[in-house]
Design goal:
Elements (H helix, E strand, L loop, with lengths): L1 E5 L3 H12 L3 E6 L22 E4 L5 H11 L3 H8 L1 E2 L4 E4 L1 H14 L3 E5 L10 E3 L7 H10 L6 E7 L3 E3 L8 E4 L9 E6 L1 H13 L20 H5 L27 E7 L6 E4 L8 H8 L10 E3 L3 E7 L1 H4 L5 E2 L2 E6 L9 H20 L11 H9 L27 H23 L2
Helix pairs in contact: 1-10, 2-10, 2-12, 3-4, 10-11
């Protein structure tokens, strides 16, 4: 049994690992380091091009449930994340370089995985799993568009990454360590802004010069990765109710909540690099330094990496794919990751996991697993393949697409945890078949 996996991002890496574990020989095709994009910085697999956070860890969060499902089912991505975790309050954040190195080493050392570097411009014959993600090269994107019915089958939106600063350059006299509402350990650097400081910052942010990105319009930005300047233009207080929310953060220098707070999260295990939480941006580099330096604690910040903007490409999946992420018109071709319309690191890994498990079973002649909508893995695959969905848009995992309980539970948090518990009980019952 042989499968070509194209793309070694989170989805492709997870898919290659699951196929290899099930005795399938995988040819893993990755264009790095021969061809890089502006968002890529290393030759490693599973490179995190935006945040280093895999988001909420608790089972009251849908993404926390998805992570736990994957963890229990032997996900390489969750294994790597747990091994390279850095403290981030109630979130699962990782040392981005250690994380990618862990995944790369595991795949390169697996006897069933052969890595071939270089750009793929057309799909090869045989069984193929395409996981080239939001940064699919133009040549392959054109090939896929032709394969799936023309340009209308491939949709686009824009994604943005936040800047990184060195910890030593942060003025800690205007900042302090804490997590919101003292939840978990004090993992965030909190940079206070008083009203006058915030209003001056907000005004300059709204008027700052953006880098030219072909085809960019505010309406084409995915809501979950909204550039901070686009968010700012929505209103004076939008940031204060979003990433600069001061609630639950008391400045020890004043004993009260500031007018606004910019949070920084550790980006590597050593704590020498921090990222600006919620500060995805496509401002020109000089403008980033000028405007973000108006945050008092970042007045003299040293930028290890400026924020960047890149295009995401995804398919009209409800028309094209089935619940196993297979192309309906050509079942030998399977897709996974963000190009299917799942949005987020964990969601990408989840789609790669499910696609690979089902593909391995098909190659062996076994019946499919059919993950149900009561599970996060099943809910995602059923969402992207739901032909009744109109105006299809990329989707993070959320409890809204998971089957409801059918009975009332007092309190949203309790209800969500009960949905998660039900899902994990189902996963445990399915586990013997899934792990074969």
């Amino acid at each position: 049994m042989n499968v070509t996996v194209i793309g070694a991002g989170l989805a492709g890496s997870e898919a290659a690992w699951q196929l290899a574990k099930r005795g399938v020989h995988v040819t893993l095709r990755e264009m790095k380091p021969h061809k890089m994009t502006p968002a890529h910085h290393t030759p490693d697999f599973a490179e995190l091009v935006c945040s280093n956070s895999l988001r909420g860890a608790g089972l009251e969060n849908a993404v926390g449930l998805l992570k736990e499902e994957l963890r229990r089912l032997g996900s390489l991505i969750l294994e790597a994340a747990d091994a390279t975790r850095v403290e981030a309050g109630g979130a699962l954040a990782v040392d981005r370089y250690g994380f990618a190195a862990y995944v790369t080493r595991a795949l390169r050392e697996h006897p069933n995985v052969t890595v071939e570097e270089g750009e793929v411009t057309a799909l090869p014959e045989g069984e193929v799993l395409v996981a080239t993600g939001p940064l699919t090269s133009d040549a392959l994107a054109e090939h896929l568009a032709a394969l799936t019915g023309g340009e209308e089958a491939a949709l686009h939106f824009f994604d943005a990454a936040a800047p990184l600063v060195s910890f030593d350059s942060i003025d800690m006299s205007r900042a302090w360590f804490a997590s919101r509402y003292d939840k978990g350990t004090a993992d965030y650097v909190n940079c206070a802004m008083e009203k006058e400081e915030y209003l001056a910052f907000w005004k300059e942010l709204c008027e700052a010069q953006e880098a030219e990105v072909h085809g960019f319009e505010d309406k084409n930005v995915f809501e979950g990765c909204m550039p901070v300047e686009v968010m700012a233009r929505r209103g004076e207080d939008t940031l204060r109710y979003g990433p600069l929310k001061p609630r639950g953060l008391k400045d020890p220098a004043t004993g009260r909540e500031p007018y606004a707070v910019v949070q920084l999260r550790k980006d590597n295990a050593e704590g020498s690099i921090y990222n600006l939480v919620g500060f995805q941006t496509h401002l020109k580099f000089g403008e980033q330094k000028r405007v973000f330096s108006m945050i008092p604690a970042l007045k003299n910040a040293e930028y290890v990496r400026y924020g960047v903007m890149h295009r995401n490409t995804y398919l009209d999946s409800p028309r094209l794919l089935d619940r196993y992420y297979r192309l309906k018109s050509q079942p030998r071709i399977t897709f996974a990751g963000q190009m299917t319309g799942v949005e987020g690191y964990v969601e990408s890994a989840g789609s790669g996991f499910l696609a690979a498990v089902e593909l391995a079973r098909r190659l062996r002649g076994d019946a499919p697993i059919d993950f149900p909508r009561e599970t996060a893995l099943g809910a995602l695959s059923l969402y992207v393949s739901d032909e009744t969905v109109k105006d299809f848009q990329p989707m993070n995992i959320n409890f809204g697409i998971i089957s409801p309980l059918g009975y009332k539970v007092r309190g949203k948090r309790n209800k969500n945890q009960e949905i998660s518990q039900r899902s994990l009980e189902i996963i445990e019952r399915m586990k013997p078949d899934i792990l074969i």
